[in-house]
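quick q for whoever's on today - can somebody do inverse folding on this one?? i tried earlier but teh output was garbage lol. tokens:
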């Protein structure tokens, strides 16, 4: 079947047909699942043959991860570790800035920007470059996550497929969101949460892109299934294993958890300020080529990891190197037995992770910020849980605080409380902590309203260029003509028997541009403009012969007081008119007044401003 035949087939389906979106979403999900598998494989390949084989450092992973290569066991060489990280940063930076500069950074913001401001368009090369560059960054020890790259990879394919099928801008945006959901659902084994993530992450306030939820759910479920089948039996295991079964011992513990929310918000603000502070500092450095900056950031991140290990003199040479790579190994321990790490080390890992992630990504490295957020939030939560357990004697396992901390931290930093609650539950395989997780996530979301990790988010759909036309229609359809035009405004009418000479003299003394023509009973029979009269001005011989009926048009485009402003705007634009007569539909011919285009737009702008300020 040719591309044109496929296009015709897709166009033949109804816009909202379930079959259409099941077909397209399943296709995006299949490719996203395959892409997630290849991305996972590529990352482990790079880790094994560079970070492990050369420097001796093999990062710990989550319990549900499937290793494809044997574990490397030999002493870590710090100089070689820095070399591997520097070369990896340089290779990733060169690849990105040479072929696809929009692939730098954490990726999710790029997908969000494409949705709102680029009609869902992503260049075809971006998924390929993002896959390779992110695998290099993560595989050589860069502190980053996998969700940003895989979200942009999936979004890129969804956008490309929509473009090839010549779909509408709306459909392309939905396909982009389906790709995001497919990638995230597979890589984090969280298909249900991923569909909400794709709809929720686009906005800063309490809003969802409702049109994408069902297609995104289909895509993420298919993607998760493809990814898990390719991995094998372990693919259906939650990311952090099946052994995390905690529950809230008392509702009174919601009080200390509220205090934990304050700590999580403070950590989130530090994360955001550090991340974008280093980003601004990196942008100001013009003496160094852009593609070299990720290498500098990677080396500095490596020095932070090595410095923390030396400062804390850990017996396990990999303990403080948890601030590098994904950090999931330390997070796994924090979830299972945080006392094994201790409060001090947990906090050092958390804030060290903030610094190394900022150095890796904000300088141009390619990776996500969701994974590091899980590590930071989990370690902070585990530390607070240990403190409460030791000082206040709370009965709930400190590991439960780590799970809740993961959700609360990202809900505040990314303004995505609903999807995060479900995602953390899916990643840990347990739903007994839904109530405290929702409590903490909601508090963090409310307390962190001024700051966001995703700067490309817009406040609500009302502020999104993707919905600008929709909301113009919605606002205008809710307003009647009777609410806008002024019936008390004097409108000069002209008798149908008035001579052209009388009309010309009347125009000279009037600022009016549209003149309704009425019969002897005062009923409107036509209308003319001052431009219609100008064509007669140079022929004075007919001034006394022609009358208003000769000048006017009988095909009057009008509106009624009960019509809405959308109807008026359509008639303004279809005939390129500046004024419309308002006619009483119950008494045809009865002129009630005139509606101007200017007052229509002014009223709409006032109503839109009121809605943005919450006044309506």
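ok took a stab at it. sequence:
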């Amino acid at each position: 079947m040719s591309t044109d035949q496929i296009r015709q087939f897709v166009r033949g389906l109804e816009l909202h047909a379930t079959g259409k979106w099941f077909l397209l979403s399943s296709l995006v999900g299949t490719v996203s699942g395959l892409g997630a598998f290849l991305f996972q494989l590529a990352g482990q390949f790079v880790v094994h043959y560079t970070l492990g084989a050369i420097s001796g450092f093999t990062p710990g992973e989550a319990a549900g991860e499937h290793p494809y290569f044997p574990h490397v066991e030999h002493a870590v060489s710090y100089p070689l570790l820095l070399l591997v990280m520097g070369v990896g940063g340089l290779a990733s930076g060169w690849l990105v800035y040479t072929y696809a500069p929009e692939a730098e950074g954490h990726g999710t913001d790029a997908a969000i920007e494409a949705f709102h401001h680029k009609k869902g368009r992503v260049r075809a090369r971006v998924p390929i470059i993002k896959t390779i560059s992110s695998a290099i960054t993560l595989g050589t020890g860069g502190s980053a996550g996998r969700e940003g790259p895989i979200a942009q990879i999936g979004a890129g394919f969804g956008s490309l497929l929509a473009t090839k099928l010549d779909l509408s801008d709306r459909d392309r945006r939905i396909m982009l969101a389906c790709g995001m959901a497919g990638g995230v659902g597979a890589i984090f084994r969280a298909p249900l949460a991923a569909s909400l993530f794709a709809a929720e992450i686009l906005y800063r306030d309490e809003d969802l892109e409702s049109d994408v939820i069902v297609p995104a759910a289909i895509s993420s479920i298919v993607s998760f299934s493809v990814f898990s089948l390719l991995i094998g039996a372990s693919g259906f295991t939650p990311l952090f294993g099946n052994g995390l079964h905690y529950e809230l011992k008392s509702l009174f513990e919601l009080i200390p958890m509220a205090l934990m929310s304050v700590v999580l918000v403070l950590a989130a603000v530090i994360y955001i300020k550090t991340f974008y502070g280093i980003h601004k500092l990196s942008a100001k450095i013009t003496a160094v080529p852009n593609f070299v900056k990720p290498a500098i950031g990677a080396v500095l991140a490596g020095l932070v990891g090595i410095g923390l290990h030396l400062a804390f003199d850990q017996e396990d040479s990999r303990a403080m190197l948890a601030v590098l790579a994904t950090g999931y190994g330390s997070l796994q321990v924090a979830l299972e037995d945080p006392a094994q790490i201790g409060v001090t080390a947990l906090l050092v890992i958390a804030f060290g992770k903030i610094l190394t992630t900022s150095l890796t990504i904000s300088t141009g490295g390619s990776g996500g910020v969701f994974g590091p957020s899980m590590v930071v939030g989990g370690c902070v939560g585990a530390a607070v849980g240990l403190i409460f357990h030791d000082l206040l004697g709370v009965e709930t396992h400190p590991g439960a605080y780590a799970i809740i901390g993961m959700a609360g931290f990202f809900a505040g930093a990314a303004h995505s409380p609903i999807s995060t609650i479900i995602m953390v539950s899916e990643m840990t395989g347990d739903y007994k902590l839904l109530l405290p997780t929702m409590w903490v996530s909601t508090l963090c979301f409310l307390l962190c309203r001024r700051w966001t990790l995703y700067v490309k988010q817009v406040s609500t759909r009302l502020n999104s260029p993707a919905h600008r036309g929709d909301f113009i229609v919605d606002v205008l359809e809710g307003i009647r003509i009777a609410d806008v035009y002024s019936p008390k405004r004097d409108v000069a009418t002209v008798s149908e028997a008035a001579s052209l000479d009388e009309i010309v003299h009347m125009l000279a003394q009037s600022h009016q541009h549209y003149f309704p023509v009425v019969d002897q009973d005062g009923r409107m029979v036509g209308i003319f403009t001052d431009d219609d009269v100008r064509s007669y001005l140079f022929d004075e011989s007919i001034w006394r012969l022609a009358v208003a009926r000769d000048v006017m048009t009988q095909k009057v485009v009008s509106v009624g007081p009960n019509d809405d402003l959308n109807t008026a705007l359509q008639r303004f634009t279809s005939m390129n008119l500046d004024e419309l007569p308002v006619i009483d539909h119950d008494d045809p011919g009865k002129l009630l007044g005139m509606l101007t285009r200017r007052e229509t737009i002014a009223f709409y702008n006032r109503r839109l401003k009121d809605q943005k300020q919450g006044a309506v």
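fwiw The longest helix spans residues 18-55. also Residues 3-469 form a domain with the Clc chloride channel fold (CATH 1.10.3080.10). so keep that in mind when u check it
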